[in-house]
Design brief:
Layout: H1 7-15, E1 18-22, H2 25-33, E2 39-44, H3 53-67, E3 71-76, H4 98-104, H5 108-112, E4 126-129, H6 131-134, H7 139-146, H8 151-155, H9 158-165, H10 172-188, E5 192-196, H11 200-214, E6 219-223, H12 250-258, H13 265-272, H14 277-288, H15 293-308, H16 311-326, E7 335-338, H17 345-351, H18 358-366, E8 370-372, E9 375-376, E10 387-391, E11 395-400
Parallel strand pairs: 2-3, 2-5, 3-4, 5-6, 7-11
Antiparallel strand pairs: 1-6, 8-9, 8-10, 10-11
Helix pairs in contact: 1-2, 10-11, 12-15, 12-16, 13-15, 15-16
Amino acid sequence: MAIDTDPKKIEEILTRSISRVYPDKSAFEKMLKMGKPLRIYMGIDPTATYAHLGHATNYIILKRLHDLGHKIIVLIGDFTAMIGDPSDKNAARQRLTKDEVQNNLKTFKQQIGKILDFEDKNNPIEIRFNADWLSKLTFEDSIQLASHFTVQQMIERDNFQKRLKENKPLYVHEFFYPLMQGYDSVALEADVEIGGTDQTFNMLAGRTLVKAYQNREKIVVTTTLLENPVTGEKLMSKSLGTGIGLDEDPNNMYGKTMALPDEAVIQCFIDCTYLSLDEIESIKKELADGANPRDIKMRLAKEIVTMYHDSDSASKAEEYFVTAFQKKETPDDIEELKTEAGIKIVDLLTEKGIVKSKSDFRRLVDEGAVTLEGEKITDANATVSAGVLKVGKKRFVKLII
């Protein structure tokens, strides 16, 4: 397959949603302009049942590279998920079991398939699992891997330093995570790895191992994280249970987008949509000229819902939002749930996927964000009764006993 070396497309790949490239952007640019297919991958640990818009930033970049003709590999960290990535964490991650990992993977391909074309026969996208090689490493292999790094290198990570200063435990197995992720690059014979800035340490470990084992360069591309530019807080986090999942229904996806802080809207257009940078620059100018941020955010919400569903669903979601929230009315087309008396609301909503977990429901109850027929529910173990249930700011369901 011929490789597209269009300078404008390459420039967008080198700049849009990119934080830093190792060793530098010129090295990556040179590789992209050579006209040879590159092996490019991104890894994700299946620590939840959904991928969110923060992950989508990287998949959109992979899509652009795939469109140029390069070989794309989506790596599922089914083995590394059982270790737990210590990146950007103030405590050791909860290690997952094999069954939990498999459960989290059930709809994963379907979700990211809304961005990546897994049906492309001319340039097929691979899905690989790192248990295929990591589970076969011997203890001798692991010692060999570890010999390429020093303890000083490992503990210089900011989050490790913080835990040491706070006398919080730092487990030996956490040192193995960057070794395992680094070895993925060797096993895949990767030319390029893409990931968020929180993965920089792990990806550079792969760069070290590719040099040691294969005597060649690996490009590391770090991408911007979706953060509130004012507070610096992550907008999307699986571990915190926040963010906009790619598997959200249209109404929920639209409503959650509208709940994003105004100051994050332009970055979301850049990182989460297919709009051209020229179009986004025009939107930015509209805001500077006094446009209502709510109207700009509605354009963002509609764009995102169209990407993951379709334009008709986006229009209906906008209608639903305007009716339910801007006009402060209960919409007509409320989802109906038929159930039996005596069932706990939390069990029903968790089973139907209206809330992601029981702890999520309890949090909403504590915040006074769950009402039945306008009355706040204060008991997280309350049982169902007939009426319109409002969950959070964006979701209505009609309970029928």
